[in-house]
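Dear colleague,

As promised, here are the two records you asked about, laid out in our usual form so they can be pasted straight into your sheet.

NAME FIELD: protein one
SEQUENCE, THEN STRUCTURE:
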Amino acid sequence: MDDPGELAVAKADPRRVLGGAPPVLVDEWQRLPSSWDLIRRAVDDGAPPASYLLTGSAVPMEQPAHSGAGRIPSVRLRPLSLAERGVGDPTVSLGALLSGERPAITGRTPVRVADYANEIVCSGFPGIRQLPPRARRLQLDAYLTRLAQRDVEEAGRRVRAPATLMRWMAAYAAATATTATFETIRRAATPGEGAEPARSTVQPYRDALERLFVLDPLPGWAPTLNRIARLASPPKHHLADPALAARLLGVDEADLLAGRDGTPPVPGDGVLLGRLFESLVTLSVRVYAQACEATVGHLRTKSGRQEIDLVVQRGGRVVAIEVKLSQAVSDDDVAHLDWLSARLGDAVADRVVVTTGAEAYRRPDGVAVVPAALLGP
């Protein structure tokens, strides 16, 4: 539907979208919102399951007349996970960890820190990651420029100053894997320039970028079993692909490995590589969790004394995951996992530390240590 000719024909005769041998794919359906209602009625009239696929790069401004409940399930399609990229041969299943059966943790991988840095900048977009480095950077930059100059306006938000939007996105990228406040990110968008962009200007940008699936914040985890008091709920900031964050900050693989963080500065723990590695693992875990019919959040108490990077929940069971840019795991690294286990008991199906190491194993205390390349659905 982003082809003007196809869209004109579909508007003239909307029922044409129902034609053809199933499955019929309607791409960028949000440009013709009536297609949703047509397909919903076709389902009501007896169309068998999987007759239609509606794909789109944004949520439509003009909502369909019917939600599609019971007829059209929605699935978020994220960039490729590490397992889907073929980076390693996973030996540890998130689904098995969620079962509570405490599976054996084994496996070895040659993937090292430099390989993960390369995966961060290579992107999980299938059409981009296989390109030569210069062409890949050009495509990612063009994607970001198009967002600022055209896509956000198509999502219903006028962009008076694309440069301001780009600076705000760079500040958001610098806040990757943190819970930095809106005000902190807004201030970082104009370092040393005096006047900050007005909240009334930036808030619509953020809303539009979420509608375009560019921002993918990780919500605070809210346990269904109310055994933990004093939980905070701000989301952790993530872009849809950590490669976008790297491009916005102007860093490449060598910069990440050398500890150069780019600009603008946003307060955060550790080096940029560590936060982008956490974002890469978060992307992968969310893909695996979706396959396992589980949800993912992060845990942070109001005092900030206890934090857990990822909490995967299915039913009444959770798998608590810490992400570490290191090969070795110390007792300090598992302290917050132990804290959660002490409070939730058997509801914690497993405790995991995802690392950049070579070997998957269980520590004597039962915590699973899993290299990122060996974790899969």
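NAME FIELD: protein two
SEQUENCE, THEN STRUCTURE:
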Amino acid sequence: MTTDNIHPEFSRMLNREDKEDLLKQSAKVFWLYGLSGSGKSTLANALERKLSEKGYYTVLLDGDNIRSGLNKGLGFSDEDRLENIRRIAEVAKLFMNNGAIVITSFITPTCNLRELAKSTIGEADFSEIYIKCSFEKCEDRDVKGLYAKAKKGEIPQFTGKGSSFEEPQTTDLTVDTEQESIEKSLEILSEFVYPKIGKQ
């Protein structure tokens, strides 16, 4: 079967605006990225809870959760990392087009992967949020014990050591968790998000 035989049915479905009207919110994707241990998952979870308490409908896509299910068969080669982000971006777009505010938490180590996510979702609906923290500080935190394993050579393609992490040239928002507390970081993140999603 070729793509010539695929006929999307989007025109007959309820559209995004209908869903947004029902939910009384503007659907967007907030793409949090940074090194392992930078605090992106902690902030993503805290942001989701804060929005939920205010009545917003959200969907949280987390790196480890996605890799344990949808992307279970993917490794950490350049090709697999690209496919990982491509699939996640498509899933995020699906939820967004159904009215959800989507919060993602993925390392997304290179500029071309971030650009892939942005181009898939659409620049107008995509916010690139860099959760900044140095490799040394993340290693010191080592929340999941991954840095210790990487130091022993047990994770050969570990981001920041065996595999590069490209610092962004531009972002929509940078949250420096090395300099700011989680509470202050969440405040900065929330103040950025609220104007984009409409008031409940």
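A couple of things worth noting about protein two: Helices lie at 16-23, 40-53, 63-67, 78-96, 111-121, 135-141, 146-151, 182-197. The beta strands are 29-33, 58-62, 101-105, 126-132, 173-176.

Best,
R.
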